[in-house]
């Protein structure tokens, strides 16, 4: 019997994420502890997330919570804003970064990391009704500046920073 619904749902989420990370890691070479492949760290993260999910599930099924641990508010609006912003960020990285979608987005322009981060921040901040909007924008501008500096400098990553071709 479920004694804490919030913890039960959180445990299921962590377990599902752990299984997903573990499954995605098996598509890459694992290597060994001395010579790690690209799938080694995601596999370890998947195992840790799965273990955390099992522990939270055990707690949800064993210990009683005050009020039964009911979920009072799902927060669907903020969840959809964050997921939409992350989807926009993925689209801005260009079709070369996600080959698993096939030829669906081959004509989509690579808008770059800067445009993706601005869209992500706009999506997340758009629902903020408090007076902290200006502070969030300052942190967002600082985040974009730091990421751009790191991108140009020591990281040298493969995703373009600025738009690379026009939309046609």
UniProtKB/TrEMBL annotation:
<feature type="transmembrane region" description="Helical">
    <location>
        <begin position="40"/>
        <end position="58"/>
    </location>
</feature>
<keyword id="KW-0812">Transmembrane</keyword>
<feature type="transmembrane region" description="Helical">
    <location>
        <begin position="104"/>
        <end position="125"/>
    </location>
</feature>
<keyword id="KW-1133">Transmembrane helix</keyword>
<feature type="transmembrane region" description="Helical">
    <location>
        <begin position="137"/>
        <end position="157"/>
    </location>
</feature>
<protein>
    <recommendedName>
        <fullName>Tripartite tricarboxylate transporter TctB family protein</fullName>
    </recommendedName>
</protein>
<feature type="transmembrane region" description="Helical">
    <location>
        <begin position="79"/>
        <end position="98"/>
    </location>
</feature>
<keyword id="KW-0472">Membrane</keyword>
